[in-house]
Amino acid sequence: MCDVRSCLDEEGFHIDVAQGGNVRIESSSTKGLLYGFYAWLRDVGLKAEHSHTEIPDQKLRMINQWDQADGSVERGYAGESIFYGRWGSNVHAEFFDFPERSAADVFRGDISRIRDYARFLASVGINAISLNNVNVRSYATRFIVEPYLQRIAEITRIFSSFGIKSFLAVNFAAPKVIGNLTTSDPCDKKVIAWWEKVVDHIYEVIPDFGGFVVKADSEGEPGPYQYGRDHADGANLFARVLAPHHGIVIWRAFVYNSHTDWRDRSVDRARAAFDNFAALDGKFDVNAVLQVKFGPIDFQTREPLSPLLARMQKTNLIMEFEITAEYLGHQIDVNYVLPQWIGMASWQSPEGSIRERLPRVARQPQFTGFAAISNVGMDENWTGNTLAQANLYGYARFCWSKSLTSQEIAHEWVDLSFENSTTATKQVIESILNRSNKAYEDYCAPLGVGFMVNRNGHYGPGPDDYEFDRWGTYHYADRDGVGVDRTSATGTGFAGQYPSLYSYLEKPETTPDELLLFFHHVNYSYRLHCGETVIQHIYNTHFAGVEEVEKFVDEWNSIQGDIEPLDWENVAERLRRQKANAINWRDQINTFFWRLSGIADEQGRSLYS
Question: Glycosyl hydrolase family 67 C-terminal domain location, by residue (predicted)?
């Protein structure tokens, strides 16, 4: 037997609940004691005090803020940034609409709200945060230098007091933009020297600074390709200037050609991350980390696992998720997304599940884990829709424990958030959450086909909005069929990026129904494993999705009076909007395919000519 503390890592803890009510919390570090204290408080709230030991499953449990220096939040649906913008303002506006603020003071200064946020994140085990958007523009490019750095340091000290390391997203072209250099070539000696000087000063001001997050060569952002360099060259520049200070660089693998010619079916955005990074495996420095989106496209309602997560053998990896509901309902529609995330992290590889694989193949296991884009803002309830809080809480619990199910996490959140409500009311809320992700998928794009969303903001249907655009997100629906041929035999070859699954994904009959249209172009009369034809499945699921939302509305109405009026009305108003959105999706998608296929609904329900 060993001493409890010596058996735990830095963040693990043991709680001993003795007879008589005495509680002892042990850990090898103050951070572990903090996590243990919050875990005990959670147990008390759940009326489930018991002796147990916990060690977090993922080493890095990170939140990415997409907050802009002007106070807006890219893909944010809960009001303005809690970090930047004008005191008291919660109306998205450009920075230059704030004339009373000096150029050096783009900071909101709401220290109390930042402290509350840090406390919440620590209470659920988050240990890292990136403080600004990865599309680094305007004054945010200068956050790494004075006078902005001093204000950033004020924020980082708050997070540090709760055991959370702070990172900054940086502009790859900063040496040119703010450094008066003529190049940002990662192999140029002057560029390297400039970054060394910047980083040295950052650590003088913020000694426990975590490092940088970088988006490069993607969607118009500058990067190493401009200089004939690869992404290992780019990432290793930052890794080497951060290494003396024990910092890391997190390099996003979301790199693709955003000027695709829709006429060329051989080009496939799904291939991009693998094609850009697989050959670089083993070339990234030990303190460089690739942050890879869970799917190969962009946080859609249904995608396969990114093959990069299953193939890299000698590279530190972070699996990326999106809590903010960019494609998943904008925190208007109720969509508890934990079932999807847990499913993605459970994909099997030769090294075990993906969440188990990350540290096993890493050069440095402590630099692996999960990251997710936050969904908070200045709205009174932080997340726009009160029920969207469940995704933020759930993400953190999902990072911490690999054994918790989505239902167990939902139960925890509901029990803690609605502690004064009856058991029956809590069961209604849990039921809505647990059914919501499937309902949303039912009334949106079918069978993994991808983008059929409104181009202006990504809310609501737009069946053909992206079909002839430059973003590489096509469904190829015509009068005969729908779907993208990603086979090696006749398509883009993407299926070949999954060696262990290739034989299954290459053929429609062995591809899972929910991913059929992601991998294959099939006729509308093609019959799924469930027995339905593709076209009838589209009709059935879209009608079913609306019916489920109508049930949500009725069920929520039934609990009025047993939860706080503000919370009830907040969700009730959004459910009314969700119902309208679901009907719009149903009618547009069903009519779109009816007009193309000419095949009527077998049940004779309303379609529009």
Answer: 383-605
